[in-house]
Amino acid sequence: MPRSPAAKTTVASVAPKPKPRRGRARRSKTATAAGPAITPPAPYITRRVPPYNLLDEAGVDRIEQHADAILSEFGIEIRGDDESLALFQQAGAKRRGVRLTFEPGLVKHLVQRSAPAEFTHRARNPARSVKLGGAHVALAPAYGPPFVRDLEGGRRYGGIEDFRNFIKLAYLHPAIHYSGGTVCEPCDVPVNKRHLDMVYAHMRCSDKPFLGSVTTAERARESIELCRILFGADFVDANCVILGNINVNSPLVYDGEVTRVIRAYAEAGQGVVVSPFILGGAMGPVTPAASIAQAHAEAMVGVALTQLARPGAPVIYGNFLTTMSLRSGAPTFGQPESVLAYMAVGQLGRRIGIPFRCGGAFTSSKVGDAQAAQESAQSLLPALLAGAHFVLHAAGWLEGGLVMGYEKFVQDADRCAMLVKVLAGLSLDDADFALDAYRETAHGEHFLGAAHTLRNYAGLFESATADSRSYEQWLEQGESTDEQRAHQLWKTQLANYQPPPIDASTDEALQEYIKRTKASRDDRWY
């Protein structure tokens, strides 16, 4: 895929050099795949296209007022975590048992007094560190599916080999800026040990930023401890090197394990993505305005908790807000209601002044077909137009999030590369107006051989999976579909994959920690 214009001008923040034993990776060449060449990527997007504002200031005020009404009248419950309840009570919230209520404006004050407007997520390869907030955007793969699917193997439970494969694919694609988190559940590894293998796979198979475990606070702390081995304890204390993505138990409940995970990441100075999970009509009211206000109230409480745990801790204001079919109970994606919600959430995030997350390549489709393309495009593009800084689920999502698709990953990554170019904006340099090409080309003649064309053709976007050949050429070469071409592409890419280098002593220390930690507990499969 060609480099976007953003790659020429965006400069990522570079981390201080860790000690050699801590595994600073040298920059490695990205493997080449079939189709357009994969070039060394820009580590994140710096957008030149302004976000779209759906609402006027009075409309944003109205949503905030209704969120405050929810927090003051109904409140938020934190079940099973007295320490988090006490932190909020000390900060001015009213407590009745496990329920907290907040005076209007209190939660916003707790957030804005210390939450950073921007932060840099450091990668083990400093050239791949990602900046989030402001004009900066990063895309990450789908997260959490227990199943995987490809054209040959069909739908099946994911395993650790699938997990590693998706990290490798994310590493190879320049428009995917994270190796991800739980890109699929490795169901062939015990539940209480798989987080160790997953975090290690991110560290070994890629040198991009990644997300850690959030299933228990202990697993979150062990994810962070692996980072201390990789980066060095002092470096981790002073820098964000890992994110934890949590979901609220909507409506209006935080499970105590979730709040303990939030505190584990924040206390260590690591990032948290706080995302209410609302299907309109189920976990929130069916009308979009009400669901947006509820999501805002829920997210703000989780964001505030990070700042109570450690003022200045990096945090992302998130949401997962979509509709559902009231006939079947299944979630629906790419609907007009969720598009409008993204726009409103973007304005709320900008008003708060911290990075925000929304969107992804969502679909209910079971395969990478026209439904998948339509719903994914209608979910991903609005999120970026809304101004999202962090987009989780940008590649691979199928079947409402139950399945990570190999072909779908490649199809989505191709779409992400297109959107990277869109966010780079329209260049209006003198060279772009091509007066020299007119001087070289006579009236009525084509520009194919012009020097300007030859200089600039490589900068045009070219899809890795779409087929623009003539009908006869397509027929002669097997009448392949987009999904079939994506299948061949990911297989070729994995065959050509080369892992990024890592310091041998650091790798040995990581494996020793994992071995020792696994030996300390019996296997659990639930």
What's the gist of this structure?
This protein is an alpha/beta fold and 526 residues long. It has 18 helices and 18 strands.
Task: Describe how the helices and strands are arranged.
Blueprint: H1 6-9, E1 45-46, H2 57-73, E2 76-79, H3 82-90, E3 94-96, E4 99-101, H4 106-112, E5 119-121, E6 130-132, E7 136-139, E8 147-150, E9 154-157, H5 160-172, H6 194-205, H7 217-231, H8 233-238, E10 243-248, E11 253-255, H9 256-267, E12 271-279, H10 288-309, E13 315-317, E14 320-324, E15 331-332, H11 336-352, H12 370-385, E16 390-391, E17 397-398, E18 403-405, H13 406-423, H14 435-440, H15 451-456, H16 471-476, H17 482-496, H18 504-519
Amino- and carboxy-terminal Cα gap:
42 Å
Number of strands: 18
Radius of gyration (Å): 23 Å
Helical content band: 40-55%
